[in-house]
């Protein structure tokens, strides 16, 4: 009986332990800034600068959203995190180890026999979005990822005998995805503890003989250093469009360090090895493309800001020596800061002195180096030293930050690089300051009202073109936890935005709808409706709905707080993010099915000239059949009578589109084509309509 009870307890413990670990990669992709939270590191696992996952994608979008290659996502780094090393007191010339929790981070796993560091926790605190709108914990982030790993005393180190750090690392990643004021940063908190004398670590039963011998001689981590490294690539999409032949990893990045804000940041500058000026990656479309034919592919500034650094052995808190900021020139692509440094001792010395890393550029003297503008760069910040006695901890809190000119202007042909630089840098600084404000107030900031949980897109059923947005009023019942009574229910209205280009914008404000507006709110269904009639048949659009308030006279959480927008404790008006519930698939404007007559069928455009008129990527090659019945069959023939395409139209709209790909998988050639539409609906059932159109390439 006791044996059975023991087995049940073991199984329960194992089940609970397994429940603490989700997939290796947890994706934060609800808001505007997307990130991969990997086991022991941030961003994708580094593979020679290749894009293998989200890495500060801003504005975030999956390329699969767009039915045409647009250069990939807006990724800003290919991997990041920190390295750690310390000296053994009994052997001052010997380093405990140099651990990688930044590049590959392969030392952390679940196997007690094969993992130098055991992964104890890696999970979303609210896996089903329970805290969206701050509904569970109003004083926390909407999305929180908790990760913990610690030294595994039973692991045998076959290649580096006795090289380990007896530490536990707790990492907490926080993202405020629903707030337009807080969607451009992610806060990452690390707590690193010396566990050399914890009972489950320091005992002969758990420890390998070698680990026990070392821990018996040494339990102090002396002169410990952390080296934060990020493989910034600002940005992947712009680089891959302009220089696809050069492979991944932008070479036109430029970086600076802001010592007052403890912030390292970069932007896309001129690629000196190519003709022209690529600053912020301007791109002119020869045909098609966005309105105006011009897009700024990399308008953002991106970097890392340190919000808190534990007091070091010099007695300095929140301290970074400017000469401990630098860059390692990553040429060739598979090089990194420790290339050519084989021993832990060599790597430790490089962590202390960045002039000893591979191909170094150290702030500030390295800023005039000729390698800027033609090479990939690993960004580095060295922190320390600390002496950690058993049980001692250090805490490092940092933020991944992005700043940008308003993205409504990224396709503005009048926009110039001076405006991007001035407004983008100011936005980056404001974002960094907001992240600092957030940390300083215990992860609490003034919040906007919750946006609609979702909305539906339909089309007008009359013979009038219009896209219909419908959403419920559920968000109006969610109070702002910082206030009491009627003031807590502060949702003042909704804003409707539309993008004619990409799922991330640029956005155009269509309407501002006050709460309970009689023109849009239906008391019986408790829902809102907005009809967008300023659309063109056959063109596709993306939509977003936000909620906003009108601000508050004060912020009761901290009456001494001052907000930049008001210069006082008055809280400025706040708006929710466009991203939690924006549409990600293009929605085509169309008439209702024409099942009464076949006399008004049109082909748009006709003649079709390649990339004529459309702006939404993927729509440049679409031919639309308008005012058609549903369901129906569309057959397209050459003038010789050869059948090139059959389309079975079954959706409840009066429009069908053809991407000019034949049933044989080839693009249709220039020429005149005959189409025949056979109706399967209403009075027109079994009737046909025949017409013609032309394609000019």
3D architecture notes:
With 697 residues, this protein is mainly β. The protein has three domains: 25-441, no CATH class; 456-586, Immunoglobulin-like; 602-695, Immunoglobulin-like, CATH 2.60.40.4070. The protein is 10% helix and 34% strand. The protein is built from five helices and 36 strands. Strands 6-7-8-9-10-20-16-13-12 form a nine-stranded mixed beta sheet. The model is unreliable at 1-19 (pLDDT under 50).
List the helices and strands and how they pair.
Blueprint (H helix, E strand, L loop, with lengths): L1 H18 L6 E3 L6 E4 L2 E2 L34 E12 L2 E11 L6 E2 L7 E8 L18 E9 L15 E9 L9 E10 L14 H9 L3 E12 L3 H7 L10 E6 L4 E6 L13 E3 L9 E3 L3 E10 L15 E5 L14 H9 L7 E3 L14 E12 L4 E12 L12 H24 L15 E4 L7 E6 L20 E10 L2 E10 L6 E2 L4 E6 L7 E9 L38 E2 L13 E3 L3 E2 L13 E4 L5 E7 L4 E7 L5 E4 L12 E9 L8 E9 L1
Parallel strand pairs: 6-7, 30-36
Antiparallel strand pairs: 1-2, 2-3, 4-5, 4-11, 7-8, 8-9, 9-10, 10-20, 11-19, 12-13, 13-16, 14-15, 16-20, 17-18, 17-19, 21-22, 22-26, 23-24, 23-27, 25-26, 27-28, 29-31, 31-34, 32-33, 32-35, 35-36
